[in-house]
């Protein structure tokens, strides 16, 4: 038989693991005891708290709850994980949703909880988690971290940065369908100037602009600027799908001093 204190600690560790996989280790003293055998538990705990204050703050928050509250929360986590495991046996459900260009807030909440947004009643088994996720998404939308119509890759990237639990099969389905960056022309190394802005679907032309700036205008000799028609436009045109885009990019990245008089030597 386990004591109430042991059961409380077991529930706390389930909730710490659910918040972030590294939190349990951050709030255990075993490693520190091995490193500093002469220090007391009080001294070791002070060191651990200083090392990861967020983990300890959450542990303190949980420790202040009653055993009944902890048991209810831990049971909900275990039930949710079981539901996620059931859904992981049906990868076609995740693939179906990963193919959609965007998710609504309600759909995103259901998927993050491991439920099928189309009629999966099990989402109502987690009212607290559902409400918390809904509130987090509302706030993220309000401050511009997410759009109301959320693309799957952006939503999962945000969820992971917020240390939310993401069903692994869902993450895999979204990653498999994520557009791959365009391959470089034969004989040319892939571009290192990929632009990835959280919460924004960066067009490929933005990366071309950045690379063109580095290629033609960084530390350029003003007495011998690159030639528009012979160097810049042909290179840009090889990266984009129209002359209009190539000319627009050339105009936008061209320094002010190089706009007057074309590409003649100054």
Description:
This protein is an all-alpha fold and 266 residues long. The protein has 3 domains: 4-65, no CATH class; 86-177, no CATH class; 179-266, no CATH class. The chain is built from 14 helices and no strands. It has helices at 4-19, 23-26, 30-35, 41-51, 53-63, 67-88, 91-98, 105-112, 127-142, 152-161, 168-177, 204-217, 228-237, 243-253. Helix 1 crosses helix 5, helix 7 packs across helix 11 and helix 8 (105-112) packs across helix 9 (127-142). The longest helix is centred in the N-terminal third of the chain and has 22 residues, at 67-88. The termini are far apart.
The percent range for helix content is 55-70%
Query: What structural category characterises the helix and strand content?
Result: mainly alpha
Instruction: Determine the strand fraction and express it as a percent band.
Output: under 5%
Instruction: Choose one word for the global shape.
Output: elongated
Rg for CA atoms: 26 Å
Average of pLDDT: 82
Largest sheet composition:
none
Number of separate domains? 3
Number of strands: 0
Low-confidence stretches: 262-266
Distance between the termini: 87 Å
- The run of helices and strands is HHHHHHHHHHHHHH
Helix run count: 14
Secondary structure elements and pairings:
Elements: H1 4-19, H2 23-26, H3 30-35, H4 41-51, H5 53-63, H6 67-88, H7 91-98, H8 105-112, H9 127-142, H10 152-161, H11 168-177, H12 204-217, H13 228-237, H14 243-253
Helix pairs in contact: 1-5, 1-6, 4-5, 7-11, 8-9, 12-14, 13-14
State the gist of this model.
This protein is 59% helix and 0% strand. The protein is mainly α.
């Amino acid at each position: 038989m386990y004591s109430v204190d042991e059961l409380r600690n077991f529930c706390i560790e389930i909730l710490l693991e659910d918040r972030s996989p590294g939190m349990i280790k951050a709030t255990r003293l075993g490693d520190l005891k091995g490193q500093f055998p002469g220090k007391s538990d009080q001294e070791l705990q002070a060191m651990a708290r200083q090392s990861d204050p967020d983990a300890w703050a959450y542990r303190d928050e949980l420790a202040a709850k009653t055993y009944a509250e902890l048991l209810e929360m831990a049971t909900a986590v275990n039930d949710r994980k079981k539901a996620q495991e059931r859904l992981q046996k049906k990868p076609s459900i995740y693939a179906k949703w990963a193919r959609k260009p965007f998710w609504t807030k309600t759909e995103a909440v259901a998927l993050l909880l491991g439920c099928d947004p189309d009629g999966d009643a099990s989402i109502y088994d987690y009212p607290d988690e559902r409400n918390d996720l809904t509130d987090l998404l509302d706030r993220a939308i309000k401050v511009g971290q997410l759009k109301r119509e959320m693309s799957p890759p952006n939503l999962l990237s945000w969820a992971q940065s917020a240390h939310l639990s993401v069903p692994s099969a869902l993450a895999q389905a979204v990653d498999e369908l994520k557009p791959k960056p365009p391959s470089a022309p034969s004989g040319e190394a892939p571009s290192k100037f990929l632009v990835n802005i959280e919460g924004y679907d960066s067009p490929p032309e933005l990366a071309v602009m950045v690379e063109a700036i580095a290629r033609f205008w960084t530390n350029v000799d003003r007495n011998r600027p690159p030639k528009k028609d012979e160097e810049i436009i042909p290179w840009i045109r090889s990266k984009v799908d129209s002359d209009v885009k190539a000319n627009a990019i050339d105009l936008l990245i061209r320094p002010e001093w190089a706009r007057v008089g074309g590409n003649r030597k100054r």
